[in-house]
Specification:
By secondary structure, the chain is an alpha/beta fold. The chain folds into 2 domains: 21-265, Leucine-rich repeat, LRR (right-handed beta-alpha superhelix) (Alpha-Beta Horseshoe), CATH 3.80.10; 276-335 and 361-449. 28% of the residues lie in helices and 20% in strands. It is built from 13 helices and 15 strands. Strand 8 and strand 9 form a beta hairpin.
């Protein structure tokens, strides 16, 4: 009979210790799509209770090595100290790292880059790396006696052998394209990537297709014919003349093993824009579905044009954020009236009564949207053999009230009777092959304000050191129009 803690077996003691380490509760990757502006699950005190347990006795200390540590790299001095004084046991325990070192015009870029790569090579168990700042960014600094960021070379070694998750949340437009090409070739086991690509203000011809081509070339130089192993991609795109359809075609070439695709299209003002708008019109014989690429050709194309691009992703299981659904005919989504400054009481009562009458048609509107979504899903699943989940977006806005603009997110999941088989899905409320409608579940829409889904240059939100008031989330001198400019977005 066990009388005290140390009488337990080593396996049981190790299992008990795992409950004191909060890193085990944080998923990998810890980040999400660019529109999901939640605080990062990053805490340097994540293993505090685990540390305390290790100090109880020598036996538990030996059974519980340092692991799952979170490290924030904040200065060049800290990097030098880790290279020269940090015990290897502590370096072996680092699992997640955030790079917060600001650029320094007083230090040579090649020296910083070499030290940083050396530090990464001393972290054999690093699984997640997040760049918040790029210490070897010199783009705003004009110097003639120093090499530029573009001249840095790919290290011919796998200096991140266990890295699974990588995120670039930097604000420099040039480094958004350059830094991934330097880091990704050194991570042969990389599975999840969060990156923002788009136009270069200094080069109008530079866009997502060129950025992806550069990344593909960098990988091929290091790994020759080996495909890039990334299966989970979080992509933030700035509109360019290339268009999303052409970008999708390039993505299928660069990431042949892609299983989960998350796309967020953001304008230069950081607000979320419509990606591929699917215009649906219900006719007597069925649905007419057309696709408009807002940053490409600018005119509607048949849904088959989109299917031809997506058919290239033979391993794709989920698509998130790529589609915006809208009805060609019929009223827009009913929305309640919110009083605005300067409105008279008579105007408010009149508009409120009109909005209340429209709200009564909300159920009918949702049913129409769901039917259109199910029709698109049937086409997608018939052509993408592994696809089984995804999401559609719907934009709503009360005229002349940009402060209450919102995005409605329709999520769906499907069950295939045979993995890889295609199925035909008809509408949920009767009709041919009605039994198959149960194979797809379309959830009720989740609502996100237009302010929430804004993304500032691809940057994740760090968790504040102290609780902050709700009112302090927005600067006092920032207006609603600045956060969600009232441009011509009624056509979403």
């Amino acid at each position: 009979m066990v009388k005290n803690l140390l009488d337990l077996s080593d396996e049981v003691l190790t299992h008990i210790a795992s409950f004191t380490h909060r890193d085990d509760e944080i998923p990998l990757p810890s980040f999400g799509p660019h529109w999901l502006n939640l605080y990062q699950d990053f805490d340097q005190n994540v293993a505090q209770d685990y540390y305390s347990l290790r100090l109880t006795c020598k036996k538990i200390n030996a059974l519980c090595p340092l692991r799952g540590l979170h490290c924030e790299l904040e200065s060049l001095a800290q990097m030098d100290k880790m290279l020269t004084k940090a015990p290897q046991e502590a370096l072996n325990g680092i699992r997640r790292m955030r790079v917060l070192i600001p650029r320094s015009s007083a230090t040579k870029i090649t020296s910083i880059y070499a030290k940083f790569i050396n530090l990464l090579q001393t972290l054999p168990n690093l699984e997640e790396l997040i760049f918040v700042q790029n210490p070897f960014c010199f783009h705003p600094v004009y110097r003639t006696d120093e090499r530029t960021t573009e001249s840095l070379r790919i290290v011919p070694a796998d200096f991140l052998p266990k890295l699974k998750s990588l995120s670039f949340d930097i604000s420099c437009y040039c480094c958004k394209a350059l830094l991934p090409s330097l880091i990704i070739p050194g991570a042969p086991q990389l599975k999840a990537l969060r990156v923002a690509i788009g136009t270069d203000p200094k080069d109008p011809t530079y866009g997502p297709v060129k950025a992806l081509s550069a990344l593909y070339s960098a990988w091929q130089k290091r790994h020759k014919d080996a495909p890039m192993p990334i299966s989970n991609l979080f992509l933030r795109i700035i509109p360019s003349d290339a268009g999303l359809l052409n970008t999708l075609q390039q993505l299928s070439k660069v990431f042949p093993h892609l299983e989960h695709l998350h796309v967020s299209l953001h304008s230069l003002t950081d607000r979320m824009d419509a990606s591929l708008a699917i215009a649906a019109e219900q006719l007597g014989y069925g649905w007419n579905l057309e696709v408009e690429d807002p940053v490409g050709s600018g005119f509607c194309q048949p849904l088959s044009a989109l299917i031809d691009r997506l058919r290239l992703f033979q391993r794709l299981t989920s698509i998130d954020g790529l589609f915006v659904i809208c009805l060609k005919s019929g009223p827009r989504r009913p929305i309640s009236h919110t009083p605005i400054q300067g409105e008279t009481r008579a105007e408010y009562l009149k508009l409120s009564d009109k909005a209340d009458r429209a709200i009564r048609g909300l159920s009918k509107h949702n049913k129409s949207i769901e039917l259109a979504i199910r029709e698109v899903i049937s086409e997608l699943m018939a052509n993408i053999p592994q696809l089984c989940s995804g999401a559609f977006w719907e934009y709503s806005k009360c005229r002349n009230q940009s402060s209450i603009a919102s995005w409605h997110r329709w999520e769906w999941k499907a069950t295939r009777s045979v993995p890889g088989s295609s199925i035909v899905i008809k509408h949920q409320h009767g009709g041919e092959n009605d039994s198959l409608s149960n194979a797809v579940h379309v959830s009720s829409p989740k609502v996100f304000s237009a302010k929430f889904v804004r993304n500032r240059s691809g940057i994740c939100i760090p968790r504040p050191a102290e609780p902050i008031d709700d009112a302090s989330d927005v600067d006092d001198d920032t207006t609603d129009d600045e956060l969600d400019p009232d441009t011509e977005d009624d056509d979403y």
